[in-house]
Amino acid sequence: MISRRRVLVGGLATVLLAACGGAASPTAAPTTAPSKPPEKPTSAPAATPVSSAASPAATGAAAAATKPAAATAAATPAAGATSTGASATSTAATPAAKPAGSPAAATSAGGSAKIGAALSITKDAAVYGATQKNGIQLAQDELNEANAAGVKLDVLIEDDASDKTQGINVFNKFINQDKVLAIIGPTLSNTAQATDPIAQQAQVPVLGVSNTAGGITSIGNYIFRDSLTEAQVIPQTIKAVKTKLNIAKAAIIYGNDDAFTKAGYDEFKKALQANGIQITSEQTFAKGDKDFSAQLTQIKGTNPDAIVVSALAEEGTGILQQGRRLGIDPKVPFVGGNGLNSPAVIKNAGGAAEGTIVGAAWNAASPNPKSQDFIKKYTAKYNSAPDQFAAQAYAGMYILAEGIKRAGAPDRAKLRDALATIKDFDTVLGKFSFTADRDADHPAIIQIVKGDHFEVFA
Amino acid sequence: MLQQLVNGLFLGSVYALFALGYTLIFGVLDILNLAHQAVFMLGAFVALTLVLTLGVNVFVGLLVAMIVCGLLGILLDRVAFAPLRRRPDTHFSALISSIAMAIVFESIALQLYGARVSRFPVGSFPESAIQVGPVSVSAIQVTILVVSVALMVGLTFLINRTKLGLGVRAVAESPRAARLLGVDVEWVIAESFFISSALGGAAGVLFGLAFNSISPDMGHSIELKGLSVIVVGGMGSIPGAVVGGFALGLIEVLSVAITGQSSMRDAIAFACLFLMLIVRPTGLLGVRQARAG
C-alpha cells in the first residue's frame, strides 16, 4: 500500500525534475521549432541568384542548410555556391573550423552578404525584439533597393528567446552553419555577455543595437554597438531630474539577476551619489517576478521624492502599476533606464506610466529629418509607431551597410576595420561615430511620459 | 507593516484558491494532479479571450472560465486518470499522466496565443487605490480577496452540508466502502474534478487580473507553491489548504519585506515545506489517515 506521504514526496521529486528539464527545454523546443522554418525560405532564394553557374550547388546548399547535422556537407556546396573566383574562400570547405583570420566570406563579390540577426522574439525581451525585427527588415529593403552596401544584404533572423543558452545556439548556427559576414544583436546585454566572446573568437563582427550594459565592447575588437550605454545616458537622466525637479531623496528597485538591470543599478547609484541625492531604500526583484507589493510598500514607507527603476519592460510595467495601486503619490515620478524605454510599457501600464522619466538614445520628437522620414516609412509599413529599439536596429543596418561599402569586399576582417573608421555618419540617431572602444557616440535625450507617448523632458 | 500583512493576505488568497483544487483531488483520489496548473493557465486565457473578442465584463469571463475549466477537468479525468484507476501502480502512473496532460495543455496554449505575455485590456477593471486607515488597497485586491473567500466558503459548505459533499467525503475515506454503500463513485470523482478544475480556473483568472500578466508558462511558478501550500496546510484537508495558502502568502511577502531580497522568496517558501515535512508531516490541519483501499 503506497502511503500518501510517499506519493507526495515522489510527486515533488518528479515535479522538480520536470521543472529543471522544463526550464531548459521550453526555451529550446518551442522557440527553435517555429523560428527555423521561416528562415529556410529566406536563405534558399537568396542562394540561387548568387551564381547561375553554380545553381545545382546552390540548391544543394539550400537543401543541405535544412539538415543541421550535415555541417561539413553544407560547407562544400556552400563554397561552390559562393565563390566563383576567389576559391581561397574554400576555407569554408575545410570542416576543421579555421575561420579565424581567413577571409571566411559568406558571399561572392558582387553577390550577397549574409547578416545574422539574433533577436529576442519570444519570452522576456520580446517587446524589444519585435520592433527590432521590423526596423531591421525595413532597413534591409531600403538598403537593397538603393544597393547602398554594394552587395545584396541577406538578413537571417533567429530567436534567442531572451535566453543565454539559446543565444549561444543561434550564434553558433550563424557562424558555423550560415557563415554570416556579421551579426546584429543580440537583444539583451545578458545574452551578449555569453555570445559575443564566441563571435570574437571566430572573428565575426558583431553590432549590438540594444546592449547598454558595461563590459560588452571590451570583450574584443570585433564587438561594436550603436546603443548608448547606461553609463552614458543615466548620468544625464539623473542630472536632468535633479535640475528640473530638485529631488533630495530617492529609492531604487532593481533586478539583481540580469546584467542589464544590475548595470543600470550601479550607474543610477553612482549618479545619485554624484548629485548629492540621498538613497532611502534599495530593493531587489528577480526576472519573472509578478508581485512587487512587498518591495514597493517598503519603499513607500521611506517617502522618497523619486523612485528609480532598473528593470526590463515586463517587470517594469508591473512595478509601475502596483506602485500606483499601493497609493504612491503621482507627484513621485518613476525614473527608469533603457528597459522602460518602450511604448509597450506605456500601453500596458496605462495610467500608471504617467510622468515616468526615461533617458533615451532616440525620441520620436527629434527634428532630425532622417528620423522623421524613418518614422513615416515605419508607420506606413507596420501600422504602428517605431520605438527606440526599432530606430537603433534600423541605424545598425545602415551602419553595417556603410561598413561593408567601405570594406569593398564582403570580408569579416575588412568589415571590422571599416566599421572602426565610421565618424559623423548621418543616421536616424543623429551624427553617429564609434568611440575608440567601439561604443556609440551621439547625444542622448531625456523623455517623460505624457498620456500615451514619450515627450522630451530635457 | 500592516500594509505588508495586507499584501500577504492578498497574495495568499490566490494561493489558497489554487491549492483548494489540488487538495480536493488529493483527498478524494490520492493523486497529485499536476495538470492543475495548466488548467489554471487555461482559465486565465479563456477569460482573456472572452474579454478581448466579445468585450464581456471580467466577471462574466470568470464565470465562463470556471465552467469551461470544470469541463476540462472532467475531460482530464476521462483521458488521463480513469484508464489508470485499476492498475496496481495507479498513484505514480496517474502522476506521470497528469504531467503529460499539463504539457499538452501548455503546448495548445502556446500554439493559440504564442509565448508572449498577454494582458487584460486597460480599463477591464478600475485601477483606483482606496485608503483604509494606514493601509492602501486597490479595487482589484479587494475583489480577489472577496471572490476567493466566497469560493472557499462555498466549497466548505458543499463538502460538509450537501449530499454531493457526503459522497466526496465517503469516497475520500474509502472508495470500495462507498461503492458498497451505494455511492456512484465515478460520478463523485467526475464532480470532484469539475469543482477542482473550476476553482483552479478561477484562481487563474484572478491571478491574471491581479498581476496583469498571462502567459502559457504562468502555471509553473504557482505549481510548486501550491504543492508547498497543501503540505504545510495538510494534505486532503480543505481548511488546511486555506490556512496554508494564507500562511504561505504572508511568509513570502514578509520575507521579501524583511530581507529586501526577492531571491529568497521562493527559497523561504520551500524551506517551510521541508520544515513541515520534518516536524509535522501531516501538515497543520491534516489528520493521519490509514487509507483502507
General description of the model:
The complex is a heterodimer of chains A (458) and B (293). Chain A is 48% helix and 16% strand. Chain A has 458 residues and is α/β, with parallel strands linked by helices. Chain A folds into two domains: 210 residues, Rossmann fold (3-Layer(aba) Sandwich), CATH 3.40.50; 130 residues, Response regulator (Rossmann fold, 3-Layer(aba) Sandwich). In chain A, the strands form three sheets. Chain A has a seven-stranded mixed β-sheet with strand order 7-6-8-9-10-14-15, with helices on both faces. A five-stranded parallel β-sheet of chain A has the order 2-1-3-4-5, sandwiched between helices. In chain A, a hairpin with a 5-residue loop joins strand 12 and strand 13. The relative contact order of chain A is 0.11. Chain B has 293 residues and is mostly helical. Chain B has a domain of 202 residues. Helix content of chain B is 74%, strand content 3%. Chain B has a two-stranded antiparallel sheet with strand order 1-2. In chain B, a hairpin with a 2-residue loop joins strand 1 and strand 2. At the A-B interface, helix 1, strand 7, helix 9 and helix 10 of A face helix 1, helix 4, helix 9 and helix 10 of B.
List the helices and strands and how they pair.
The complex is a heterodimer of chains A (458) and B (293).
Chain A lengths: L3 H44 L7 H11 L5 H12 L29 E8 L6 H21 L5 E8 L4 H15 L3 E3 L4 H14 L3 E3 L14 E3 L4 H16 L3 E7 L3 H16 L3 E8 L7 H9 L4 E5 L2 H13 L8 E3 L6 H7 L7 E4 L8 H14 L5 H20 L4 H9 L4 E3 L2 E5 L5 E2 L3 E6 L2 E4 L2
Parallel strand pairs in A: 1-2, 1-3, 3-4, 4-5, 6-7, 6-8, 8-9, 9-10
Antiparallel strand pairs in A: 10-14, 11-12, 12-13, 14-15
Helix pairs in contact in A: 1-2, 2-3, 4-13, 5-6, 7-8, 10-11, 13-14
Chain B lengths: L1 H28 L6 H19 L3 H24 L8 H24 L15 E4 L2 E4 H23 L1 H11 L1 H6 L4 H27 L6 H16 L4 H22 L4 H16 L14
Antiparallel strand pairs in B: 1-2
Helix pairs in contact in B: 1-5, 1-8, 1-9, 1-10, 2-3, 2-4, 2-8, 2-9, 3-8, 5-6, 5-8, 6-8, 9-10, 9-11, 10-11
